[in-house]
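Example record used in the benchmark description.
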Amino acid sequence: MYRKWACSSITVCLSLFLAEVSLAAAQNAPRLATSAAQSAQGTTRSATAQLPANCPDYSGPLSSVGAPVGEEVDLVVLSDPAPAGGYYWNVYSADPTIIAAGNTTQGFIPQVYTPEGETESGQFSIFGIAVGQTSLIIQEVSPGSGGSATPSAAWAVNPSGFSSLVDANFPANPCVTPGTGTLSTNPDILAVCGTDVEGAVTDGVTQLLLRTVSGLQGTACYSITTTGPPNQGTINTQVTATQPSGSFNYGFSYFHAPDGYGDPSASRTVQVQFAFAPSGGASNTTTIPGTLTLIRPPLVLIHGLWSNQGAWSGGAASWFRPGPYYATYAADYGDTNAASFSVNFPTVQTWVASGLEQVRDLGFAATQADVVGHSMGGILTRLYANSSPYFRDDNYDLGDVHRLVTLDTPHAGASLANLIVSMSENSLVAAVLGILWSDIGGAFDAPGVIDQGAICDLSENSPALQGLNGGTNLVSQVVTGTGGPAGTPGSPAPYFSPVEGILTQKIICAFSVCAYIFPQNVVNGFRALQQNDQIVSLTSQQALVGAGTSYQTGYIHTAVEKAADVATKTLGVATQTLGLLDGPVSGFLSSLPGVGSNGLGNPLTVAGTGVSSDRSDYADQCVGFLAPLEPLFRSGAEKASHSLTPVALALQSQRRSVVRAAQTPDPRVQIISPSNGQQFTPGSTVSVTVQITSPLTLNTGWVNTAIPGVGSLNGVNYTANSYQASFVIPATFTGPAALTPAIIDATSTPYLGAAVTINVVPATAPLSLTIQQPYTHLTSVPSNASIFVNGNYPNNVQMNLTSSVTGTTYVSSNTNVVTVDTQGNVQAVAFGTAVVTVQNSGLHAFAIFVIENAATPLAPQNDTGSVQISQSGFQLNRTTGFYVQTVSLTNAGSAPTVGPLYYVVSGLPAGVTLTSGGGLTRTVPPVGSAFVKLPLADGLTLQPGATLSLTLQFLNPTRARISYTPEVFRTLGKP
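Model output (structure tokens):
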């Protein structure tokens, strides 16, 4: 359908021709005329085109017309009835770099014809090429005629697609007024700030700048045409006058992302309609639909005490969802996982920043991340959210954590930590505890170190927990483990756990008369008197908010029947937690209440040994710089505040020597079988023989394995100077396994022997390899990360192949940026990108590392050498008038090429324009070259052997020979 206007005999008129079902062309667009005659009434639009109230919708005679960049507007020339021979019209632009005009069926030959007796010419089009203002010239060239018309024309609306969507909070160029956390209103700032994005995360905080650029002053209008549910977000100002900046005019508004995802799909789209009406005269209102994509906030996983990044890897867990719309970052503080809260909680900001950078790399704006904190990880997140650095300009002073889910987090502390403090008061008991506790640490993927501060901080009523006394204003939910029933003082709990096994360890005496290693009256005093997860009481897990507010699972910290493992690796916990995060905010608490810690270190949920003695034990072990369970070495500032003398330091060291001496290997206690480095396969039986050399006398002995599901093994088959132990290697365990002998001699003195390490290697090669976190974005140098590798076997069996003893090797593509050791431990040594190639049994997998801070992004990186470019010839499409070329890009290398990637076109002949691109480069040389963003399958990499295709469209009115230089660049944000 089209519209036309009646005109006088000499005057030339133009009318819009608009396909009723087309969304590619501007709707209700050019009504262009030089006559004062009124237009016909009525409007032609697609059913989805909806102009906001108060948005100009002119319907009279036209004196100007807009053509969006990359889009066309179809027109006809109207006149008096054409005489014999008809009318011929030359239609051209005064500046074809801004507006091109022509007859598409003739390949942009700018001439149209009105048949004899007709008032309407054949159809022609104008094409938006660039931002600017020019004139559209219509000249009659019929014999004996000199009539012409020169209406004004302007580039009116941003190109359709994503270039009108800007991350208003892009760290390298934010639209925020410095020091305020609020968005700027200065048009000179808003004209150049931010970076182009495809959409936003649904954190309820992120805002996209909607930026309309025009050659003329006018009115910009914005509306969301998609209807819910779920929430589609909001537009702050729907109708706004343009403001001048430089040589252009800008209309500004903001899209405010919705809070919560509310959809089971990987992503969802929102249609945002842009419209522009030039001011004054008779002008058209041009509308173009744009699409933005909404995705979930990035997910940051923070492990707990004695753990590392591997807590989220293996088993049936699905924490890392594949695809270009999911960003998951697993934090790793394995080197300090037993340290005080104060050491680790400030780093939460860095972990969240890495998650946000990862989703920005995918091309989406993000301000807040979802956080899942396991155990101590939940406390660290709360402490960070309660600290002053949490509120900053770069998160609109609203914080950067969207929602927090805690898994078995001891919000009010863990009475088990109080028990360790109480037992550590006895140096002999503490020595044995230090030997045995590596068992429970092994269940958490790391040794159980008790004297670095975390045990004291995790105690109920600890001073460190006072940082939570004021509550935490985070939208949160608690997932709790209730597999452990309430214990009864005086008797063991009726279930097995690694903790129970350690606390009820016995010394084997003569005539089978046995005694417990640890005083059972103390152990019983700290037994949980309510449901628990074998580590933390339910009250503490529920953050003191009461029953009915938590989502319950069987076990999270440990599992039963010696299958000790962090159950964050189990499918049920991952499915439940991700379901919470994907769901509505109604599934969450608006905040977490205060803990109410008094700082005295006495337990809350158990009887203990008595308030007075428990407080005394805590003060002796945890309060002050000399406390044995506090770190020996602190920061210079902390040392200075305590003004320690050499004598005081010597005293502290002496107090610890009793505990540490028992953990120093004694060569008189040694494993003689198996040998160091001996190889086994999963499911094998390992027989251990321990020999004791005189003058030591054996009372009882055991072997610590730190193997999940095995733990500590009591000695059997005692002789005067030896004992044995045996175990079956779990069917899915692989890697090195340290076997450490320990004894208590006849004088009740503990001794630790030297460890022997056996290597457990799968009997068969894996079908494939999986990297737990294949893409990692780190924001600082130096920084550390770890690569966790799973081998995939038949029947959905996975085995951990991270260790080099399983045959896995690691090679960094750029050791100047990233180094990696034989165990997959990565250190970022400089800003840049690197790919670590992981190999096992002839199979390959890749771990991508981007070391970049968005506030100071890396310079564009030319990756043309790593991509094979194949180009077709140029073919004129006579339907559209454009020249078309197909380009194929293949990664012919052996490692992925790291994105975001852009295909840059430079050196085009004068008058030839790439109309299917994403704009002109600002940082990639030569500046002003056209570019196209490559549609990577995962959004982040072009994998080895992978090929993608582009269809390029060129405007070439003069039919010049087209040639250009193709290059591929990697850069964060618009090139």
